[in-house]
Here is the input.
Amino acid sequence: MKNNRKICFMLLFSCCLLLAPLTASALAMNDAISIAGQQRMLSQRMVKAYALVGQHTMLSAVKQMDDTIRQFDRNLEQLVLFAETPKEKKVIG
Here is the structure.
């Protein structure tokens, strides 16, 4: 009985060690997907702010556009870090 527990524990521990890299990769992929979705929203926000600046209807639109561009650039840098191959890096950057 005691020997069976030891074997079960070792099997469970081995599975956890084998699955750990897969979990880290999945989390990174989920983060990348989230950031890519945020990029879409930020691009829409930039276009809206640009239109408001062009119409001179909202004074804070310039600040909003600048902040959005900075966030977009930071996200783009993070996505480049997620890219694994040179081809992916070229497509992103």
